[in-house]
Each structure stands twice: as C-alpha cells, then as structure tokens.
Design a protein that fits this description.
mainly alpha, about 75% helix, about 220 residues
C-alpha cells in the first residue's frame, strides 16, 4: 500500500469514527431530553419554587405530574414493546405511534382532570391540558405524517416555564436546537417534521395556557 492509499484509508476511518461519535452524542441527547423526562422536570420546576404552595401541595402536584406524564405512559410503552405492538421505545414506525400517542393523550387528560379537582395552580393544570390537546392533535396528524415528538416535548415545557419565570428561562432555549439536531443526525425526522413539533410545542402551548388558564 502506497502513501496515497494509506492516507485515503486513514481519512475514511477518521470519517467513520466522527460519524459514530456524532451518532452517539445525538443518541445521548435524544435520551437525556426525551419528552417523558422533560415533562417531569417541568412539573417539578413549576410547583416547588412556588412560595404560595405548602410543601404537601408541592409534593402532591409534582407526584401527579410525574405519574401521568411520565410513569404511566412509560409503563404502557414498555408493555407495548414487550407484546410486540411497537418495535422500540423510540417508535420509529409512524403507524406504530398512533396507539401509544392516543393512550398518552388519555393519561394526560386524566392528569388534567385530577389537577382540576384538587385545585392545582393554573400554569400546572394548563400544561397538563396542553400535553393532552397537543398530543391528540399529533395523533390525528400521525395518520398521514410524522411529527417530531422530541421537538414538541422540549418546546412545550420550556414555554410553560417561560410563562412562569420569564426571561430567566431563555438560557435553556438552545436545548430546542440541540434536540432538533439530534433527531436530524439520527435520521428520525426531517426539518419540516421538527419545525412542526416546535411550533406545536411553543405556540399552541402558549396560546392555550394564556387564553384558557391564566387570562
């Protein structure tokens, strides 16, 4: 092998290593900022700093948020994967997404009803309602097209946190771009599908919380 061949081989190997590293970083970002994790963090951050709530109320509201936005939907996904309804928790297949999304929307709605009954803060109740309504919209669209749940799942909670704490949350908004890039690198979504997720997460969440719950 001459020097030119060695250089070409080295270049190809280096490129492959870079691609592997890029995919691994994208995969880590997708898992760390998965929708289920984001929702739990959002509910915790919305209730625990609230000085108007007692410690007991904070624990109850946070528990309900985590239970209905994370634990119960994840339990369903693990069950669905175990019986073969979905291939993976990421649910790459568009048609396989419909049932899990519908179940998720139902669980979010149940959480919203409970929040209403026990008198949770409007921003908390509103976010759970947005999870239900936004997910239901995605269910309808998923029959024909695929929307990035990851993009929606990071944008919605960040919007709710922004509406609660204002500009102090803006430093976290680059996370939307990081999550979007990770989904592109992993070839899970196209740019229009990611943009649709961000639009639903940011603007629909804002409009619903502002004009239904805190107007």
């Amino acid at each position: 092998m001459n020097y030119i061949d060695e250089f070409k081989t080295h270049s190809i190997t280096t490129a492959k290593v870079k691609d592997i590293m890029k995919d691994r970083i994208a995969s880590i970002l997708s898992k760390v900022f998965a929708p289920f994790i984001n929702s739990s963090i959002a509910f915790i951050l919305l209730v625990f700093p609230d000085k108007s709530l007692s410690l007991l109320d904070k624990c109850i509201f946070a528990f309900i948020g985590v239970m209905f936005s994370t634990i119960l939907p994840l339990m369903y996904l693990y069950w669905a994967q175990r019986i073969g309804k979905i291939d993976s928790l990421d649910i790459v297949n568009r048609k396989q997404r419909i049932d899990p999304l519908a179940v998720g929307a139902l669980m979010y709605f149940m959480g919203f009803v409970i929040y209403n009954i026990i008198g949770a803060p409007p921003i908390v109740t509103g976010l759970m309602f947005c999870f239900a309504s936004n997910t239901l919209l995605v269910v309808l669209v998923t029959h024909y097209w695929k929307i990035s749940i990851h993009s929606m799942g990071i944008s919605g909670p960040l919007m709710a946190l922004y509406m609660m704490y204002g500009n102090a949350v803006l430093f976290a908004y680059p996370l939307i771009l990081l999550v979007a890039m990770s989904r592109l690198i992993l070839k899970r979504h196209t740019i229009p599908q990611i943009v649709a997720g961000v639009v639903i997460g940011l603007f629909l969440t804002y409009l619903q919380i502002k004009y239904i719950f805190i107007s």
